Amino acid sequence: AGHGDSPPSDAVATERGRVALLDRVLRELALHRPVLVSPSMSGRFAVPFLLARGARLAGFVPIAPAGTAEHPAQRYRQLQTPTLIVYGDGDAGLGPRALRRLRLLPRHRVAVLRGAGHACYVQRPRDFHGALLAFLRQLG
């Protein structure tokens, strides 16, 4: 989507295009009710997918994702997808901003990784994996 080394693409220039791409990837991989883990900029794909197709997911793990404020609060309140919201307590930007919107999801819990910044899963991998595994076990 134009970040890192990926070239810009008209296919993902719109929210509808990003949802369609993620939908196609999940279908091609034959994933039935996966848990979608979404750090940072991937939130521009994952959050619209959650809001449009949340019933296709067994769970959602946003890690200080981008793009949460672009959607009305009511859309979040209607979703029943189990969600583990993750962010580092040293992330002064995206983590707290995303948390404000994601807390509206009825079936959420929050894991704050102490002493970690925005890339909390890199800085505190043991804590991140512990929280993720506990969430996955709870999903059954």
TrEMBL record:
Q: Name one GO cellular component term.
A: cytoplasm
The cellular location(s) given in this protein's UniProt record come to: Cytoplasm
Q: Which UniProt keywords apply?
A: Cytoplasm
Provide the leader sequence positions.
none
Entry superkingdom: Eukaryota
InterPro entries tied to this protein: AB_hydrolase_fold
Q: Which SUPFAM superfamilies match?
A: alpha/beta-Hydrolases
**Chief localization:** cytoplasm
Write down what this protein is called: ABHEA protein
Lineage per the UniProt record: Eukaryota, Metazoa, Chordata, Craniata, Vertebrata
